[in-house]
Every structure is written in structure tokens, then in C-alpha cells.
Amino acid sequence: MSMFEKIFGDFSEKKAWREMEKRAKALPEDYYNAYKAMQKYLWNTGGVMDWQETKFVFNHIIDLLEEVAANGKQVKEITGNDVSAFCDDLVIDAKSWVDKQRQKLNDSIK
């Protein structure tokens, strides 16, 4: 890894993030707002940690919202009334920040 990459990060990941956010912004306003709310929830709860998992989950949410919008349905018709539970189910197998901290603690003690 070059010094440039250490300072600024991997540009391919940043490009992928920008493309994903561009797709989300193309959603109708209500669906975009739902995406941002789910995204905020996942960030705040530590639901996703790894970039690959993050990219997978957020792209999956965008895919679902694009489909729901195309079919003229409301967001809760796909998520159910408990949107937080829907989001939790999306990341149930993903390594979270808490998982990382648990592993770090376990590894630190001999």
C-alpha cells in the first residue's frame, strides 16, 4: 500500500460508494428518504463493519427500493411495519463493530 493510499484510502472503494449513493439519489424522494433513514440506523447501531458487507447490504436495500418504486408500492409493503427489524435481519450474519471489539478483547488477553 502506497503512502498516498494510506492517507486518502482506496479510490476504487470511494468510487463504488459514490456510484451507490448516486443510485440511491435517483430514487423517488420518499424511497430515497427511506434509504437514508435505514442507512443512518445501520451506521448508528453498528450493524455493518466490513466494506464488502456494507456495500452488499446498502446495494441490496437500493435494489429493493428500486423494485418497490417501479411497482408503485410503499416501502413498508416490503419492509413491514418494523423497519428496524427488517434492517437487523439484513445484517444478522454480518460482522458488526461489537463483534470486532469482542474479538479484540479476547485476543488481547492470554
TrEMBL record:
It comes from the Bacteria. This is DUF1048 domain-containing protein.
